[in-house]
Amino acid sequence: xxLRAIVVVLILGAAxxxxxxxMWTFDAFPSAEVKARYGFEPTQQWLDRVRLAxxxxxxxxxxxxVSGAGLTMTNHHCIRACVMDLSSAENDYxxxxxxxxRLEDEKRCPGVEANQLxxxxxxxxxLQAATKGLAGAEFASASRAEMSKIESACATGEGVRCDVVxxxxxxxxxxxxxxxxxxxRLVFAPEFSMAAFGGDADNFxxxxxxxxxxxxRVWDGGKPLxxxxxxxxxxxxxxxxxxxxxxxxxGGTERQATVAQLEFQRDVALPFTLxxxxxxRGALREYASGDAERWxxxxxxxxxxxxxxxxxxxxxxxxxxxxxxxxxxxREAELRAKAEGPEAARAWDEIxxxxxxxxxxxxxxxxxxxxxxxxxxxxxIARILVRAADxxxxxxxxxxxxxxxGRLPQLRQELLSEAPIVPGLEQVxxxxxxxxxxxTLGADDAVVRAVLGxxxxxxxxRTLVTTTKLGxxxxxxxxxxxxxxxxxxxxxxxxxxxxxxxAASRDVRRRYExxxxxxxxxxxxxxxxxxxVAWGTTGYPDATFTLRLGFGTVAxxxxxxxxxxxxxxxxxxxxxxxxxxxxxxxxxxxxxxxDVDPEMPLDxxxxxxxxxxxxxxxxxxxxxxxxxLVFDGNIHSLGGRFxxxxxxxxxxxxxxxxxxxxxxxxxxxxRVLAEIASGAVQAP
Amino acid sequence: xxLRAIVVVLILGAAxxxxxxxMWTFDAFPSAEVKARYGFEPTQQWLDRVRLAxxxxxxxxxxxxVSGAGLTMTNHHCIRACVMDLSSAENDYxxxxxxxxRLEDEKRCPGVEANQLxxxxxxxxxLQAATKGLAGAEFASASRAEMSKIESACATGEGVRCDVVxxxxxxxxxxxxxxxxxxxRLVFAPEFSMAAFGGDADNFxxxxxxxxxxxxRVWDGGKPLxxxxxxxxxxxxxxxxxxxxxxxxxGGTERQATVAQLEFQRDVALPFTLxxxxxxRGALREYASGDAERWxxxxxxxxxxxxxxxxxxxxxxxxxxxxxxxxxxxREAELRAKAEGPEAARAWDEIxxxxxxxxxxxxxxxxxxxxxxxxxxxxxIARILVRAADxxxxxxxxxxxxxxxGRLPQLRQELLSEAPIVPGLEQVxxxxxxxxxxxTLGADDAVVRAVLGxxxxxxxxRTLVTTTKLGxxxxxxxxxxxxxxxxxxxxxxxxxxxxxxxAASRDVRRRYExxxxxxxxxxxxxxxxxxxVAWGTTGYPDATFTLRLGFGTVAxxxxxxxxxxxxxxxxxxxxxxxxxxxxxxxxxxxxxxxDVDPEMPLDxxxxxxxxxxxxxxxxxxxxxxxxxLVFDGNIHSLGGRFxxxxxxxxxxxxxxxxxxxxxxxxxxxxRVLAEIASGAVQAP
Lengths: 684, 684
Description:
The structure is a homodimer. Chain A is 48% helix and 15% strand. In chain A, strands 1, 2, 3, 4, 5, 6, 7, 8, 9, 10 and 11 form an eleven-stranded antiparallel β-sheet that branches.
């Protein structure tokens, strides 16, 4: 019995168990275990420094301060949208890269928000008290209100962001207090083709040769933000076998999921999303191939779609492996046997029942509320405006979560972003979404009829995009300031569309929150309790795009009897170059071939436990110094959504020494290099 | 115990059980049961007449003779490719329809072969003797050779086609002897937009308003084929509750599948194909939207992709319903308990094990051998030529099955078809396939490297399509006649491509046949025996695109508490018209609105058990007369791949009276109408 439990734990990571597994919160890092395995125990001071040097990019990435003046390292793919937004047909920074020669040449990224985690407080008792004895809609609304209340009380100004964070699916709640920065500027970006060398073909593959790095700077009050706590660059380059750490924001895992939740993902949720994305990819790729300007404006969003598609496909394949489900089934049987009391015993069945009913309305939820039917920037803007008119007059605690006082700054930044909107792309996406809406819900569905009337999706999309005024930021500001009266009076076709679908969309959201999310959160404490009884620990919480620390080593793996080495070199990149996208090295690299050391490491594979959201995380050594920059996982890491497999799960990083080598010999980014070396802003 | 078995049978159709279920071979039709249920028992003469009046279109559809002079009724969507092939930018018959004013105006369809089933002989003992004691590769090759031998001995000329048909997954083998006709001409086709009114949005939906009908004529020796046995048109129109029959060629079902086979479909095979098709659809749709000529040439293949996609998606959803799998599991447990002897007991596990290993090479099999990586007409031609050079010198029994003497005529017809090849479309598809090849197998795969070299998919596709000479039928004839020497000497890029991938493709085909197909066929007799023991019958065999007869009634169904009536009317079509594709009625219909009877039935729903391949099947009454033309199933019928659900599974047909009404008042197809009325060819 004991042996079997250990095997399961080892494979499924229900608790720390001798593998380099875990996405640990900073307040519960297993330092003793790291010491036992690697002879190094991080001190509290070490942990605090790493935490404060870690940066969250609120759009969905990780980053870190690497100088005392707000210089921030992340992946190119994390700021691809910014590079795109700053580009034009004449100045295509996505194609040719960007390098600010002087401090004043750094360009502000529209829509990028950076967060620094300064405080974590347990608020579980408050949430439990507020929802005691409640279920369904009452549980959901009490829980929402209490979270908003806690956040509002904490967020004392625009420079502070407070999020109530749900951990262990709702068994634990914490208040995370961040410093919030919205003036984030682009300092350096390589060519997109180099950042993503190998394209979709090599994405999630290794050996790999990407230079997926970029530098930003956080500004505050018109000056570089002083960041006394930052990560210096390591003098010692990382080599195979070294102990390393990752500090970043893994986006989401389902390692504690119930069997019903996994089957729902495998059979319903993932197929729905995958088919949607696959078709969208086909459409965008064909659209982009039309001409150079279409290619310029579409390649970045296309890449995002392709990345998500490949990643979700990996997840689906992991779930389609009967072994994985069998191990979850076995674990669940053990846990159920430990459940205490009748309510706990019902928890698994209640989750299963809620998902069975969710099946019937998942398409509506995805299409309407999650905007798969309206995948355009313009609709997103229109929806914010229409909902703001309804929500802002209410007390903060009664609003939709994203309109609560604490969250408004991010929303307003998105709304008032000066990022250019590309009409052609908007039209393709809008047509696509409207077609999906009609074909999924059927031509006779009430919402479909209300949206389309007697119009075709393509015609309606053309009208929407060509006649809306929402491309103009001043008009958005006017509608925001004008509130309900302005929205009611507006005849802008996107405002009309957002108004038309709002009731149905809110309905299905409420249904989701009341009958799916609330059930899961209510059940979570029982599941956590069963884990504590069965294993003596609840392990680390599933990832939720909050700051986590992990440990591991620089290491390759075995595949079909072959050993995949941990490091690739600059030489390898030149060998892989074939002159054709996506295997075409940019001119900078071709020109610098004589200057670079071919044996210099370029990318590296590590056992660090990471998932999407960790992109941009620094890889640091035991001194707390930078030895790499995570930008991907290997193909096996896609199954890491559900289980970390020590033998094969790998995080992929740009090697720290290679990163500096490229900055120096390929890009001559001397200002960045000098700042990294000295820790202080350099005169140009 | 008894009760439970009956419920399972009722739901899963393991045997006839009181529902209108079953795709019965003509030599085992349950006439007595029909008599018991409906008071009518088809005589042997009735069955023979219906069988001889039934036509198989070898490309994948059903049809029937409706005059004594070879006039053949089928669906428009069954001859869409022909209409397309006969069209040009100037004469777009797909858009405006086609009507041959005189006999001599009927246009020959390139690549259409019609078959009439004249004889069925049991050959199970021959196959069993030939494969006795064998397994794996030996079983597969002995089985292939014996089938080819039987077919060759039977096929005494080009006018005869003989297929050894696998029934019950290999528990039974029959030799089907057909008359083969390759001179099939187009007589009448409505507009594509009317045949497919409602487009993809309404496909598999009901109420429905499609006029998905077309008429061909089988010619023989330069004259209309005399067809003394044909289906006359019923004088009495079908009405709700009437007993009706369907005679046609259902393409494939998996109602006798094992749980492992269904899980494999749900988790591996269907997701792979679905994602491929979804992306292809996105690409084709976007490509087609480029200009009018692209739209003209792409809409028909696009529609085929969309139809398959929607249909496979329905299958996946049926399998994702946990109830369906649970019932199959229960049934399988019962059957396993009845298995006789150790070999029989192993049958289920052997199938499961073979599928577990198939997982690893399904992508290769689909991409290379099933040509998902090479979805162009030109590649298909090149592959036939390259393989013919290898295969034709061998004795017939040793060749790949499709090159055996009995099958050559269909292959040669495909190869030498004068159907136009559209370079733009070929290029889009070729690029798509090559991209899929690289991304699925990886840039470092040996086949990928051999195919692409240092080229990009888009560049290679352009070179292939613009420099090949295979668009020229004379060149194909030359390479066919020239055999191995001509193929070896050819530098045609498509020939080179087909040569390059052939070894790998044959390897993976062999692996599939030896380790998956052979295991299934070897296990089939044991499974069938268990069914006989458990239920006293093996029921009807799973569909295999061979002639079947089914029975049922004209009936709607209940959906969410609403009654869906069995018939729609012409009025409904006019009401659904909104002026925008796919809900735009063509000008003929708009102009005829004053002449048609709005209450005339247009489409109808029936309980007939049908699947893809049944398209074009006649609906006939107890007199053996035409009362309709099946062209679709409702959305629930998509789950009919696995189980017929009497309450909801419906086949959708053009109503017989409505069909004549439309021919008369909308299309003024007087020659067709007169021939149907008299049974004989009419003077113009």
